[in-house]
Amino acid sequence: MALKFFNTLSRSVEEFVPRDPQGRSAGLYCCGPTVHDFAHIGNFRTFVFADLARRYLEFKGFSVRHVMNITDVEDKIIQRVRENQTPLRDYTAKYEAAFFQDFQALNCLRPHETPRASEHIADIISLIEKLAARGLAYRAADGSVYFSIEKYQGCGGHYGRLLKLNFEEMRPGQRVSSDEYAKEAAADFALWKARVPEDGAVFWPSPWGEGRPGWHIECSAMSMKSLGPSFDLHLGGEDLIFPHHEDEIAQSEGAGAQAAGEPFVKYWLHGAHLLVEGKKMSKSLGNYFTLRDLLAKGFTGREVRYLLLTAHYRESFNFTLEGLQGARAALARIDECLGKLAEIAAGSEEAPSTADVLQSFTTAMDEDFNVAAAWGAIFEWVRETNRQLAENRIMPAPAATLMTAWQKINQVLGLPPKQENAPEDLVRLLIEREIARKAKDFKRSDAIRDELKAKGWAIEDTPKGSRLKRL
Ligand code: AMP
Ligand code: ZN
């Protein structure tokens, strides 16, 4: 079955056909974090969605190249750098490191490339030069360089592809210099911002004098550098549709690097917001939780990931701590069922993954990453499996088959294994094995290893000693 998803460009659900003539590889770019502060879990809803999309594409057999930029030069960052009187890199390094710690705690796969805007100034300048050479960029009285929407439209470009804009209401020649602006203000936007005293030490030389790039051009330059002038998938939260992604299209296609008839991006996917009491979770409203806040309350990255993955990516939903408690309870049901299956399956041969649940999961996910339906199928399977377990009707080989199916499903869901403490009697066996090994009684130590394995536990020998891990 083919994978379909909603393309913001066509406003319809389309089948995914990669640009690769062999139909195998796919380039995916997701706008990354602005490292001005700790990311909140609303931000992470979008990154977990991008991770899910990547994992599912890989599950479907595509070879994905995943790029996520780090926005480390932008209005908010410069303001913070000024307030903190710190060099740019020192300031952003802290939040970038924190971001990747949280990213890992949520078990998101590391993108293949994570370019930083501050390290791509030359690429950004050369892209602006291309736009200037084609007459689409002009220098304003303040020394900044702007993108001319009128000129772009005049030479066949179409501004307003992702969001329908009413050009009658737009005043030609109007300009915005800030990185974020509203739809009503659709106007020429800054590509290069001339240095002002408030920028402090954050500036670079350029053909237009000292200054710094605008936010939108950063993503055009970095995405095309990593994935080429045309690529398959571009993701982000829905707030990025306008102006950020609209501007990315205008700049990237305006520079004309694409082959004739090829778009900058074939599929645009946008994730809905995580809300709090009906309002977008955001720094500016102050209604946010960072992952750190939630870990401090005793929740785990696994529980937060599960919660973020419960709703369909195009539906906004309200975050609550009760919802997170619900995530814990739901995971416990899955874990209990899997724990029992693992015990039964322990010691049986590696099994094929021909379970119905895998089929229902795939059918659901093929339809626009319908995780809600996928979880429905999973919980139905848990219910049925529990019923059969209660009646002792599952034999080792079928249990192994079900475990393999779950492992395949979980390659997509990415739930990290539960950190489970082994029962006390097994820990005692582990200690006994240590003693046997020290006494060079390898027969006994091997026998204990086998006994533990039969009970569903593996021994991991670490430099700090050995410990037990669920098979
Ligand atoms: P930023 O670090 O502000 O550039 O945002 C990083 C990503 O988080 C972007 O893709 C945003 O669209 C996304 N984002 C911001 N707030 C939310 C939210 N409340 N729910 C989901 N995604 C969000
Ligand atoms: Zn971007």
- Beta-strand share of residues: 15-25%
**Apparent shape:** elongated
Q: How many β-strand runs?
A: 16
- Count of alpha/pi helices: 15
| Structural class determined from secondary elements | alpha/beta
User: Overall mean pLDDT score?
Assistant: 93
Ranges where pLDDT stays below 50 over 5 or more residues in a row are none
> What is the makeup of the main sheet?
5 strands, mixed
Rg on CA atoms, Å: 26 Å
Span of the ends, CA to CA: 32 Å
Bound molecules: adenosine monophosphate, zinc ion
Percent helix: 40-55%
Structure characterization notes:
The chain is α/β, with parallel strands linked by helices and 471 residues long. Strands 5, 6, 7, 8 and 9 form a 5-stranded mixed sheet that branches. A 4-stranded parallel sheet has the order 4-3-10-11. It has a 3-stranded mixed sheet with strand order 13-12-14, covered by helices on one side. Bound molecules: adenosine monophosphate and zinc ion. Adenosine monophosphate binds next to helix 1 and strand 10.
Explain the layout of strands and helices:
Blueprint: E1 4-7, E2 12-15, E3 25-30, H1 41-59, E4 63-68, H2 75-84, H3 88-105, H4 121-133, E5 137-139, E6 145-147, H5 149-154, E7 175-176, E8 188-194, E9 211-213, H6 215-227, E10 231-237, H7 241-254, E11 265-271, E12 274-276, E13 279-280, H8 291-296, H9 301-308, E14 317-318, H10 321-345, H11 356-366, H12 371-390, H13 396-413, H14 424-438, H15 442-454, E15 457-462, E16 465-470
Parallel strand pairs: 3-4, 3-10, 7-8, 10-11, 12-14
Antiparallel strand pairs: 1-2, 5-6, 6-8, 8-9, 12-13, 15-16
Helix pairs in contact: 1-13, 4-6, 6-7, 9-10, 10-12, 10-13, 11-12, 14-15
Adenosine monophosphate binds at residues 31, 33-34, 42-43, 45-46, 71, 236-237, 239-240, 271, 273-274, 280-282.
